[in-house]
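Quick one, tokens below. Sequence please?
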């Protein structure tokens, strides 16, 4: 961060040969400078390098207002906030004015009065670019007074001025955002009559307050965000306003598991203690990401609502906390995430998906467990021989000894077991560790245990063995016994 300039008066500013630039020209100039140096100003934005960010760059170079259109959890607000990186670090303003007046091009009556009174001794302050971002969530109760302003009768009475005098106006958020980036989130939620009030500001730059028309050439970079779902469920962007927004840019979800994992790792809020205490291998992180990808294609989940990237972020946080809790209970210094820890992500999933009618009938808990099961089922044949392939090609199953053992002796894995209890139970299953060593050679001891458990879950998802999830444990048993349990009969 550069030091704040030391110039404190209008006279000193004039002597410094400072040249003010319009906001959109300022952003354009800084973007060009970044591109020429190969610097990425959109820090923290992952997965949009080939799609959204080029559109943003084109909009800035064109000096356009922007509407970011996309489903929830697609980094629309994050993109808007990174636009501040295209602003000059410091700009001068006249001290004491409401509208961030440029000392060399004053806008408000108050600024003109100050310059007329003090001349070159007019005090100025320096405004950091972090102060030049204004964000407003559109809600049905937002009024014209909130955004544009209103006549202040108390001010009029105190100053003994008529209502048609600029000095009695209480300016709203938009005029106060002069020389700033102004963002309205969820634009369709704004009532149509309020959207109408934005027409002149976007096109002509003047405002009208209670019939008093005031010519204010406001210098604002407008950014709007909207969710396509809102167009039918809650409101819409009226056509004349949409026509005045010059660039509409579509956002999207990560297009690959790897990009999704990168976003989740970047955004998850894990403490230093958790990161020291709990090891989460990439394999577990990949399964979490696969749950979100499955949800976006599942027949029980409403695709129009989308599945936010926040699902995987909170899921990873829950999984780490589950492993940390077990570590603390067993007074262990470190632990390794297990497949059974994935059961802890269910609360993160149920709160992040909107279900269609069939999904509501099944219940969010069932749908969340089904999504997790589908992720395991899809991943299993990528690492181990697929049971369906073995059956179709009439091959000898490498899982025969495992299935025979589980059919005769139910295997129960408790969520809070220590590392030794967990390992002893898994190693008691014949040929399980040999299969893992054969198909996942060279992995460490902790990863071997995780993959041994994964084999059991994979076989259960292909209905080779049965699986019952209880409050504090998972039980693997004969698939036939599992089918004829009373609870399952009731579910059927």
């Amino acid at each position: 961060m550069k030091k704040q300039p030391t110039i404190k008066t209008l006279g000193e500013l004039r002597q410094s040969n400072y040249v003010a630039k319009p906001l959109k020209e300022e952003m354009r100039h800084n973007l060009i400078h970044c591109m020429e140096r190969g610097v990425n100003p959109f820090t923290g934005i992952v997965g949009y390098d080939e799609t959204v960010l080029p559109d943003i760059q084109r909009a800035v170079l064109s000096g356009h207002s922007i509407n970011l259109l996309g489903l929830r959890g697609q980094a629309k607000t994050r993109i808007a906030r990174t636009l501040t990186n295209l602003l000059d670090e410091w700009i001068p303003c006249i001290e004491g004015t409401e509208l961030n007046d440029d000392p060399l091009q004053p806008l408000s009556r108050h600024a003109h009065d100050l310059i007329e009174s003090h001349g070159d001794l007019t005090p100025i302050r320096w405004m950091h670019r972090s102060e030049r971002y204004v964000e407003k969530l559109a809600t049905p109760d937002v009024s014209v007074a909130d955004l544009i302003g209103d006549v202040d009768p108390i001010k009029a009475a105190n100053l003994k001025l008529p209502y048609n005098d600029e000095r009695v106006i209480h300016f709203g958020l938009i005029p106060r955002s002069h020389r700033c980036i102004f963002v309205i989130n969820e634009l369709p939620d704004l009532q149509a009559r309020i959207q109408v009030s934005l027409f002149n500001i976007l096109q002509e730059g003047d405002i009208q307050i209670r019939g008093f028309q005031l010519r204010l050439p406001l210098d604002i970079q407008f950014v709007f965000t909207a969710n396509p779902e809102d167009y039918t469920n809650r409101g819409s962007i009226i056509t004349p306003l949409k026509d005045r927004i010059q660039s509409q840019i579509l956002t999207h979800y990560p297009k690959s598991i790897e990009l999704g994992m990168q976003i989740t790792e970047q955004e998850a809020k894990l403490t230093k203690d958790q990161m020291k205490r709990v090891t989460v291998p990439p394999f577990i992180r990949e399964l979490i990401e696969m749950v979100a990808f499955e949800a976006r294609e599942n027949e029980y989940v409403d695709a129009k609502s989308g599945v936010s990237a926040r699902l995987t972020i909170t899921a990873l946080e829950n999984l780490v906390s589950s492993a940390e809790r077990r570590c603390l209970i067993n007074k262990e210094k470190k632990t390794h995430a297990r497949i059974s820890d994935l059961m802890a992500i269910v609360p993160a999933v149920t709160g992040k998906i909107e279900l269609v009618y069939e999904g509501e009938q099944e219940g969010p808990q069932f749908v969340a467990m089904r999504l997790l099961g589908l992720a395991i089922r899809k991943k299993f044949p990528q690492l181990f021989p697929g049971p369906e392939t073995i059956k179709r090609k009439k091959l000898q199953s490498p899982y025969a000894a495992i299935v025979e053992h589980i059919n005769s002796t139910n295997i129960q894995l408790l969520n809070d077991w220590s590392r030794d209890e967990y390992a002893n139970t898994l190693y008691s299953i014949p040929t399980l560790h040999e299969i893992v060593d054969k198909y996942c050679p060279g992995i460490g001891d902790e990863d071997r245990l995780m993959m041994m458990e994964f084999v059991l879950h994979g076989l259960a998802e292909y209905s080779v063995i049965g699986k019952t999830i209880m409050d504090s444990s998972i039980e693997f048993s004969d698939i036939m016994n599992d089918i004829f349990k009373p609870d399952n009969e009731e579910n059927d």
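The chain is about 45% helix and 15% strand. The two ends are 64 Å apart (CA to CA).
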